[in-house]
């Protein structure tokens, strides 16, 4: 009895060390993702990065103002039918209805949220694949410091959400033993 109790204590200690490692990685990632936002707010009055960010924010604002998906866009090239990818603007407009505020800030926070979800899923995938802690840290920090990941974590684009959801699906597919036995 005493031996199994000590094994449980060791497992809980190992879990807390892994949790501490994940927390440190997420904190470092948050600092890296906030640095461009900070510099843009200080030197460029908080303007969003990229034209796609403005388009998604404008589409979300249009959905909010019309309380639904409009059929016609009057502001685009003198007016045209409303033919856009509207997944991210719908999510932004729903977040705006839940917590009204500055939609630019909501857009930035949503991108950072999806980036953090992607990092958590990558950590879990690497942990499940039995990578060593030093390998996990190296792989995750390479991703965090890659310019493309920093860029997509700071713009209002569905690409970072796609990355996060792809990693979630990859983790879920590999964690279900029934699926592995069928395949």
Backbone CA Rg: 21 Å
Unreliable stretches:
12-16
Strand order of the largest sheet: 1-2
**Fraction in beta strands:** under 5%
Q: Percent helix among the residues? A: over 70%
Distance separating the two termini: 40 Å
Order of SSEs: HHEEHHHHHH
Mean pLDDT: 77
| Structural class assignment | mainly alpha
The helix count comes to: 8
Number of strands: 2
Largest sheet: 2 strands, antiparallel
Shape estimate: globular
Structure notes:
The chain is mainly alpha-helical. It is 77% helix and 2% strand. It has helices at residues 2-43, 51-66, 87-98, 103-128, 133-145, 147-154, 158-175, 177-182, and strands spanning 72-73, 80-81. Strands 1-2 form a two-stranded antiparallel sheet. α2 (51-66) packs across α3, α3 (87-98) packs across α4 and α4 (103-128) packs across α6 (147-154). The model is unreliable at 12-16 (pLDDT under 50).
